[in-house]
Design a protein that fits this description.
Layout lengths: L10 H6 L4 H8 L6 H8 L4 E3 L14 E3 L2 E3 L3 E3 L13 H10 L4 E3 L7 H7 L4 E5 L5 H13 L5 E4 L9 H6 L28 H9 L6 H10 L4 E6 L2 H9 L4 E4 L13 H12 L4 E5 L5 H9 L4 E4 L1 H33 L12 E3 L3
Parallel strand pairs: 4-11, 5-6, 6-7, 7-8, 8-9, 9-10, 10-11
Antiparallel strand pairs: 1-12, 2-3
């Protein structure tokens, strides 16, 4: 990686100087007043760690499993769109950096490289994030293509029946440059995002193409056609977590879409405990949103998450250093987690239970 950094919080400003304004604000921005975006980060300050001392922490193991797949740490790469905006190799570089860090990438439907290209670029476990298109044949084809290419799970995004109002994208009239398309949708002829005269071209594309009528019945439909486990991403309440488990999902990601959908939600770490209680160990629970430190990961684990997913920091690393930048971001986070675990008296992820954490009094 070309530029040295001491923590992931520095990366956004470092990338700011490298990227066109519209691209940077598309990645960094949130919906409306960006309250949810800020709360994701602020939520980590609402919880305090309770370290134990005089335990043998000469050897600390950060590895864990997700859906039975071993990974080097409980940190996965979140599905994010259009990696080609920040690096010529796009998702291919992200996949390489992720594999070198020994963890798992969730590939977006809205990738600038096909899911097959990404899978063949480097052998490693990965999941496929799915948006449901109005044309169900398009969606079904994506599911079967992912299975044929060796993906290990389908990660269904359920919090975007309509795109949140991202005002920065509207001001910038965000669209893809002519050299980039939504590569996975090329066979269906839905790969182009034409410029818009007003507002965000991508918002218009989503409105025209994605299915806003999605319900829990469609989760059952997806389960019926998918040969892969189904993880639902975008759950923020105990009520929906219970329904998800009742519909046979294999995992839940507590997520508010990085603060890019409904504004003024809880931060995801604050929403995590009620989901974990509702699920009661029947499926694995993951979390994304605002993770920037090893202590953030440790807090999520202590509150019951199996792993966290990281999005923006990976994209900043990709922008600054390609595959090496992605690997550096993930290696750094693993190093911080390993130190945090040692200082908290934990030698494995299995030891990071609820006794390790408490809510900070207001």
């Amino acid at each position: 990686m070309e530029s040295a950094f001491t923590n992931l919080l520095e990366l956004e400003e470092m990338a700011h100087g490298r990227l066109p304004r519209a691209t940077f604000e598309y990645i960094a921005g949130g919906a409306e007043d960006e309250v949810s975006l800020r709360r994701n980060r602020e939520a980590f300050g609402h919880w305090a760690l309770r370290p134990r001392v005089l335990t043998d922490v000469a050897h600390v193991d950060t590895s864990t499993t997700v859906l039975g797949e071993k990974v080097s740490m409980p940190v996965l790469v979140a599905p994010t769109s259009f990696h080609g905006l920040v690096n010529h190799d796009g998702e291919l570089a992200t996949a390489l950096g992720t594999a070198e860090a020994g963890t798992l990438m969730v590939v977006s439907t809205l990738a600038t490289r096909t899911l097959e290209e990404i899978a063949s670029h480097v052998p490693a476990p990965r999941w496929f994030q799915l948006y449901v298109y109005k044309d169900r044949k398009v969606t079904e084809d994506l599911v079967h293509r992912a299975a044929a290419a060796g993906y290990r799970a389908i990660c269904l995004t359920v919090d975007a029946p309509r795109l949140g109002r991202r005002e920065k994208d509207e001001r910038n009239r965000f669209t893809l440059p002519p050299n980039l398309t939504i590569a996975n949708l090329k066979p269906a002829g839905l790969d182009a995002v034409p410029p818009a005269e007003r507002g965000s071209a991508f918002a218009r594309y989503a409105s025209e193409m994605l299915d806003a009528s999605l319900t829990w019945k469609d989760v059952q439909w997806l389960k019926s056609i998918s040969p892969l486990p189904v993880v639902v991403k975008g759950i923020m309440t105990a009520e929906d977590a219970t329904i998800a488990v009742d519909h046979g999902v294999d995992g839940i990601v507590v997520s508010n879409h990085g603060g890019r959908q409904l504004d003024s939600t809880l931060g995801t770490l604050d929403a995590l405990p009620e989901v974990v209680v509702a699920v009661w160990g029947r499926v694995e629970v993951y979390m994304d949103g605002g993770v920037r430190r090893g202590t953030d990961v440790l807090k999520a684990l202590a509150l019951g998450a199996r792993a966290v997913l990281v999005g923006r920091s990976v994209l900043w690393g990709l922008a600054l250093g390609g595959a090496d930048g992605v690997r550096s971001v993930l290696d750094h986070l693993r190093s911080e987690l390993e130190l945090a675990m040692a200082l908290a008296g934990c030698t494995s992820c299995a030891e990071t239970g609820s006794a390790l954490i408490q809510r900070v009094p207001r």
